[in-house]
């Protein structure tokens, strides 16, 4: 019995070590694209050294390659170095975007930030400037706008204001993203405020998302017409 116990114990240690090794390898692979991008920023020699252990088209959990990152962060030299050493210009990330399209995503994030700076939750602070930016956002292609909205939301301090703006902009296909944002990232009073806004936004899809959020969080919804700080596609 003692021998069996020792064998089982050793087997468990081996399995644990294998599991840790696999996790460590997976983490290295996910960091590979970032490592390449950082090397490409420094010099061609650093990039060549990094490529000895990582494929030039290695991608992270978002599907971004080093070339995606270079375009996204505006690293012109990094872009040139990566392309010269064989980076694929047509590889697509999880959003279906090519590396060059990430430049447009970054520009749209800046546009969103500049627009939120011109508003409160419900009103313009600087309407003359804000209206021009708002019209530019309304013209953004959904496949560029929607990833930009989510990426900015994940690091934005004024998240409620950004959500209100997204409702007011009313870009097609963004309703699903907004529903996920409410369901995953908002709770308590702040979540109740967003859910109430969705409920009265004029969008059936957002109203359904509000109802599901209320059910999960133990709130009752009283259906009644009321004023709202955000109507779908209106500012």
From TrEMBL:
Keyword Protease annotated: no
Record keywords: ANK repeat
SUPFAM superfamilies: Ankyrin repeat
Keyword Secreted annotated: no
Per-repeat ranges for ANK: 62-94
Full protein name: Ankyrin repeat domain-containing protein
Organism: Streptomyces camponoticapitis
């Amino acid at each position: 019995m003692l021998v069996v116990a020792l064998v089982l114990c050793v087997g468990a240690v081996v399995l644990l070590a294998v599991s840790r090794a696999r996790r460590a390898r997976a983490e290295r692979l996910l960091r590979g694209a970032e490592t390449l991008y950082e090397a490409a920023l420094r010099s061609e020699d650093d990039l060549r050294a990094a490529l000895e252990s990582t494929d030039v088209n290695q991608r992270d959990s978002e599907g971004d390659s080093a070339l995606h990152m270079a375009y996204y962060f505006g690293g012109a030299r990094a872009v040139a170095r990566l392309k010269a050493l064989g980076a694929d210009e047509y590889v697509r990330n999880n959003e279906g975007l090519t590396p060059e399209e990430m430049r447009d995503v970054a520009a749209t994030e800046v546009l969103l930030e500049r627009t939120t700076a011109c508003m409160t939750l419900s009103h313009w602070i600087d309407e003359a400037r804000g209206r021009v930016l708002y019209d530019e956002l309304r013209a953004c292609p959904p496949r560029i706008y929607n990833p930009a909205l989510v990426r900015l939301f994940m690091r934005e301090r004024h998240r409620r204001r950004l959500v209100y703006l997204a409702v007011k902009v009313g870009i097609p296909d963004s309703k699903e993203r907004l529903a996920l944002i409410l369901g995953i990232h908002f709770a308590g009073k702040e979540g109740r405020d967003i859910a109430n806004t969705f409920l009265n936004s004029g969008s059936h899809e957002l109203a359904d998302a509000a109802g599901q959020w209320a059910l999960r969080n133990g709130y009752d919804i009283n259906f009644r017409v009321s004023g709202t700080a955000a109507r779908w596609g209106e500012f």
